[in-house]
Amino acid sequence: MSDPKRIPPIELEGAASAPILVFDEAPFFGVAVGMGRVTLTALIQDEDGRGGVKQRRVAVAHLRGNALAFTELRNAINGMETLAAPAQGGDKPN
User: Fold this and answer.
1) What is the count of structural domains for the chain?
2) What angle is formed at CA 28 by the lines to CA 66 and CA 74, rounded to 5 degrees?
3) Helices then strands (H, E): number in the chain?
4) Domain containing residue 67
5) Is residue 47 part of a domain?
6) Rounded to whole angstroms, how far apart are CA atoms 61 and 55?
7) Considering the entire predicted model, what is its pTM?
8) Is residue 15 part of a domain?
9) Strand arrangement of the beta sheet that strand 53-65 belongs to
10) pLDDT tens digits for range 60-93
């Protein structure tokens, strides 16, 4: 893993006020007019009116981006998986 002291700081406006997206699934995706499209959904539990619980799927966001944007997203996801993986010879994440 790279040395965090050597990574230059990133200038990022609006980070404190950006929305936080929480999702459970990405069931729909495709490409149209050169733009990637992904719909993110969350599973919501609610009472069913008869004393039970029902589950619904609700769209929470629609991601849109060009090939470069989705390559960057894939790189970020791969990086998260690397950080979450146990270190070699240990059981703690990297």
Assistant:
1) 1
2) 45
3) 1, 3
4) 22-84
5) yes
6) 19
7) 0.72
8) no
9) 25-32, 35-47, 53-65
10) 999 999 999 999 999 999 999 999 988 776 666 6
Average pLDDT over residues 11-28: 92
Q: Give yes or no for a contact between 25 and 55, defined as CB atoms under 8 angstroms apart.
A: no
Residue 4 lies in a domain: no
Give residue 37's identity as a one-letter amino acid code: R
CA distance 15 to 12: 6
The whole-angstrom separation of Cα 31 and Cα 74 is: 16
Joined tokens for residue 49: 């009116």
Q: Which two tokens stand for residue 74?
A: 């894939």
Predicted confidence at residue 2, as pLDDT, reads 56
Q: 45-64: string of b/e by CB count within 10 Å (b at 16+)?
A: eeeeeeeeeeeeeeebeebe
Asked whether residue 91 is assigned to any structural domain, the reply reads: no
